Amino acid sequence: MLSIKNLHASIEGKEILKGIDLEVKPGEVHAIMGPNGSGKSTLASVLAGRELFEVTEGKVKYFGKDLFDLSPEERASEGIFLGFQYPIEIPGVSMVNFMKTAVNEQRKHKGLEPMSSSDFLKLMREKKELVELDAALANRSVNEGFSGGEKKRNEIFQMAMLEPKLSILDETDSGLDIDALRIVANGVNKLKSADNATIVITHYQRLLDYIVPDYVHVLYNGKIIKSGGKDLALELEEKGYDWLKKGETV
Amino acid sequence: MSLETVKIETKDKFIELYHENQDLLKSDSPEYINSIREEAFNHFQKLGIPTKKNEQYKYTNLDQEFNNDYKTYISPKNIKFQIEDIFKCDVPELNTKVVLLLNGWYYDRENLLEELPGGAVIGSFQKAAQVYPDLIKKHFAQYAKSEKDGMVALNTAFVKDGLFLYVPKGVTIEKPIQIINILMDEESGLTQHRNLFILEENSEASIVVCDHTLSTPNFLTNSVSEFFIDKNARFDFSRMQNEHNGSKQVSHLYFQQERDSKVNTNTITLHGGLIRSNINVLLNGEGCENNTYGLYLTDKGQHIDNYVHMDHAYPNCTSNQLFKGVLDDFATGAFNGKVLVRKDAQKTQAFQANNNILLTDDTDMNTKPQLEIYADDVKCSHGATVGQLDEDALFYLRARGIKKKEAKLLLMYAFANDVIKAIKIPALQERIQDLVDKRLRGELSRCNSCQMHCC
């Protein structure tokens, strides 16, 4: 579904991604690991369509379409979901209104009628339970005054509401205690199917105890320097990244 | 053939107009009004129309606007219409008592003063000046001073009619009173109505004012309203400015609040070519509370200028000012707010904020919040922001599939909602939420049920 070829991207003239290649097929879970500043979040942002970054070279195909022809909202409506590392607080926009607008905009994109209020509220209730999101949070403004863990759970809640085909979870584990981590991982696992895929971006192996990846990639200095199966994550946990950095490409 | 033009100063045009119409102006007005009129005229001769050199009017060129050939209404023009035919309030559940001013004149000429339950009175200012001289003498021109502002002097020199409301001691008017200011004529007109609101001790009232233009000519308004809010009285004042963009409006509100009184004002500006709103508040006793809120949504060539002067003259009073605005296209705006805390006004709490979103590079906003504090035990803050929509928030919404245009609307609406939720009457709040939503979407060009489609 996703095919990244020789992707280069920069911000303010500084190149961050220096030639990424990655293939993701339905049903797969990919983990992208790597030290700080290696370009993990940039990759996530570029795929979601953040205009801050300039793509200077390379191609990304998503279900055969050129991803860069699509606006961020079109990508979302076509099934790409970015779980933000730092979810944004939006005072004055209620969670209900936000999700209702998002669900119905996506339905409109697919040529479907807007969802009725009662169906929508029922869907909200179901999905809230999935990530054990406090009912009261849904009545508040988007992420406003949410704790770090609540914000991350809220990302997975939105993912559950929107049922994406490709989820990119950017450091969803950062700032989570072990219980919250388990809840978030459970949510992701329950949403997993043969038709959708997940890219999990993380620092630590810890999350991968809960969300078991099919592939692990190590991103360093804007390039994937090593790919392997789930055992690679364990190896990284044990040895750190230094042994890979020396060789740069393996 | 040569054409010579002689530049006549705007001031001189009004001086001449005054001299020509002096007899008509003074007829039907009691002696005490006419002596104040004379005084105001003298002040106007000195002050004239404020130019941009005047610090208070720095950002709005009034002289240019008043130097046009607008007809001034010295006497009421007989325009008959069935109000239900052209104007219907959209908020039936608001259940208001509705009164109308047509081009600044109390519309119901058959019934110029009406008694409300509890002995309250609403009606024509001109008529009230004849019927209740003692009451009006005590309050008229006591709060809006001609010597301080040429525009107030001009209004007072030409004073004829406007709205009068009197709420006696201890009386609560349950229903909100809706005042509809209608401007309608076949030619361009200058309206200068004069309103007086008197709330005695421990009384309560709420007012909703809607400004509308119901015909296409350009209108200019220079209105003055005085409010006397006596001890422990509670007063709510919301107004909706929705005139067409060919209209120009200068309004002056003067509030005097006595001990433990509470006043909320909320000014929602949707349409209007040039709008200058002055709000002057004197907190003249301990324990007063004043909340002065404003929201302006402007585009095209609209100009909006809000001026607030909050005078804390006594200890233990609280004031909040919040003005928010969204400017689009090449709209321009200004906010000039001053909080004065006098020497003895200890334990004052005064807050002032002005936040603006500029949607294009061609908009221009000048904001000047000021604090002048002479007491030492106070809690005051002021701040102003001028910025764009939050790019991170915009991306967050778009990343969930919400189109850029819709995402912007959501953010603008959220921004505006801080002011709307301060409106106390729930039905009115809902109505305004709806109007603001439509205005932001560019769908509001007129009041919904108005048949005139004037703007």
Report on the architecture of this protein.
The complex is a heterodimer of chains A (250) and B (455). Chain A is α/β, with parallel strands linked by helices and 250 residues long. Chain A has one domain (2-247): P-loop containing nucleotide triphosphate hydrolases (Rossmann fold). Chain A contains 8 helices and 12 strands. Chain A has helices at 40-48, 72-77, 95-109, 117-130, 148-162, 178-191, 231-239, 242-247; strands spanning 2-11, 14-24, 29-33, 54-62, 65-66, 80-83, 90-94, 141-142, 166-170, 197-202, 215-220, 223-228. In chain A, the strands form 3 sheets. Chain A has a 6-stranded mixed beta sheet with strand order 6-9-10-3-11-12, sandwiched between helices. Chain A has a 4-stranded antiparallel beta sheet with strand order 2-1-4-5, with helices on one face. A two-stranded antiparallel ribbon of chain A has the order 7-8. Chain A is globular and about 55 Å long. The mean pLDDT of chain A is 91. In chain B, helix 2 runs antiparallel to helix 7 and helix 9 runs antiparallel to helix 10. Chain B is of the alpha/beta class. Chain B folds into 2 domains: 10-271 and 423-441, no CATH class; 285-386, no CATH class. Chain B is built from 10 helices and 22 strands. Chain B has helices spanning 10-26, 31-47, 62-66, 83-86, 125-131, 133-139, 150-157, 391-398, 404-420, 426-441; strands at 71-72, 97-102, 105-106, 113-116, 120-124, 163-167, 177-183, 189-191, 194-199, 204-213, 219-229, 234-242, 248-257, 262-271, 274-283, 289-298, 303-312, 318-327, 332-341, 349-358, 364-373, 379-387. In chain B, strands 1, 4, 5, 6, 8, 9, 11, 13, 15, 17, 19 and 21 form a 12-stranded mixed beta sheet that branches. In chain B, strands 3-2-7-10-12-14-16-18-20-22 form a 10-stranded mixed beta sheet, with helices on one face. Chains A and B meet through helix 2, strand 7, helix 3 and strand 8 of A and helix 8 and helix 9 of B.
